[in-house]
Write a structure and sequence with these properties.
With 94 residues, the chain is α+β, with helices and mostly antiparallel strands. It is 43% helix and 16% strand. The longest helix is centred in the N-terminal third of the chain and has 16 residues.
Length: 94
């Protein structure tokens, strides 16, 4: 998702006072849930909500979520790339 400050700076018109960091906090929380929740239905619902087509699991994700079973995605997502510690999963079109 990128840094919250960076995302806020480039995705929000600074004159628009209706959108604030809470929106980004919610997205960050959802990303954390995608990588850590053991229930595929929860993960798939969030992926659909954000219209995610591919899910990336690399060194950063492995370091950020060391207790998560990141290999579990292969049970319900299609592996389209796997090499050098990186796995990219394709999310099925619903």
């Amino acid at each position: 998702m990128g840094w919250v400050g960076h995302e806020y700076q480039w995705r929000v018109n600074w004159l628009n006072k209706g959108l604030n960091a809470v929106d980004f906090d919610s997205r960050k929380s959802d990303v954390d849930t995608i990588y850590t929740d053991p229930h595929s239905s929860v993960v798939m619902n969030l992926l659909a909500r954000y219209q995610v087509q591919y899910l990336y699991v690399g060194l950063l994700e492995q370091m950020k979520y060391p207790k998560a079973n990141l290999q579990r995605f292969s049970a319900f997502l299609h592996v389209v790339y796997s090499a050098h510690g990186v796995t990219i999963y394709q999310v099925p079109v619903s």
